[in-house]
Amino acid sequence: MKLINFKWQQLILSLGCLLLIIACQSLYPSTNPDTKPLKVATDPTFVPFEFQTASGKLEGFDIDLMNALASPAAGIAKVAGFAVQFESLPFDGMISTLQAKRVDAAISGITITAERLKTIAFSRPYFKAGLAIAVREDNQNIKDFNSLKGKKIAVQIGSTGADFAKTIPNAKISTFNSGPEFFQDLLNGNVDAVISDAFATLYAIKNGKLKGIRVVADFLTQEYYGIAMPKDSPHLDAINKGIATLLSNGTYKQIYQKWFKVEPPQLPDS
Question: Tens digits of per-residue pLDDT, 170-182?
């Protein structure tokens, strides 16, 4: 009789352990590629798209968008099951880092171009942008593209502004790692103009962070930003679905108006 009771106790104990294991597995799912944090590179010097606060916190339009994509509201968390882990990286190193698959994605005002599409993948466009000419307020000589001939031009390394500057006849081009550096060179009188993202430049001027600088003429180009990923990324479809959800449910509009105070433009599907 005691032996039978002992066997029943063993059976009950075994069943209890099994239920405990199942419960633990439910609470703490096993690690797999879909539940690992998505490593996302960004260059936190591109205000207002990404920047670092005094406390070290990342903020900006791109940061809000990426965090929204990883939320259940976007549907991405349900589809791909990822959280976002941001990694600061110089802009000119992002393409090579994506090619080497050291990060899963990059968001940093990266323009979708045919040349970049040869080596990396892009999400559907998430932002309509363009390049602008910035000069010192007292400069009356530079009014448009033709006025840039033979002038000293500052650009960011690896940017579409740097590519565009190469088309200016006889221009003397200086390259910099970030916007604050080339705008300071402009204010110091070392260059005649800066070619950079229009929205970032206008935002900095409006918020008083670029005193003594103005934007001239119309935008030089029309561009679209995309979330960059390695070729054949398993996250591409989920991120595209997430962007579509944010566009349709009003979240994108809220983020856009938070940073730019205007209605967002229509974006193409691809």
Answer: 999 999 988 788 8
pLDDT in tens, 235-267: 999 999 999 999 999 999 999 999 998 899 999
pLDDT band with cut points at 50, 70 and 90 for residue 130? very high
Give the orientation angle of helix 251-260 with respect to helix 61-69, to 10 degrees: 170
Q: How far apart are CA 68 and CA 248, in angstroms?
A: 13
Listed in sequence order, the residues at least 6 apart from 63 whose beta carbon sits closer than 8 Å to its beta carbon are 42, 50, 86
